[in-house]
Each structure stands twice: as C-alpha cells, then as structure tokens.
Amino acid sequence: MLEKLYFIVSRKDIGYMRFILESYDGLLFMRTIDAAKGLIEVGFHPSRRQDALALLQSLTVEVGLEPADPPADLAEL
Length: 77
What we know:
Elements lengths: L2 E6 L5 H9 L6 E6 L4 E6 L4 H15 L2 E3 L9
Antiparallel strand pairs: 1-3, 1-4, 2-3
C-alpha cells in the first residue's frame, strides 16, 4: 500500500513535477486530481518514506508545493 500526500502546485509546474518525479525511477508516483486547482496526489512506498520526503522538501523550495487535504470524494486507483 502506498502512502499518499496531497499538494497544491502552480498549474504551470504540474508537468515539471511529473517529469522530475518520474526521473527518480519509481521513488514517487504522481497523479493530477484537479488541474484547474493544481491539486496533485503523490504516492510512495513506506520503505522509501525518508527519500520521498527529502525529495518533496526540495521540490517545496523549488516550486512552492503547498500541503493540501485529500478530497472527500476521491476514488481509489
């Protein structure tokens, strides 16, 4: 089971985020929940939590990630 975190990011940075996260070869997975609001979901395996959080911290500084609550009506994948 993946741990999941939610963030708001500028719409212009959604593609950049996906590109960066995919370049880490399975460390983190991202899906866009609401492109208009810039809401994204980031998932990672619990065994990779420390590495995942370190990368997210770096991206918070770089692109201004803002933590968000998960939507109440979000469907599981």
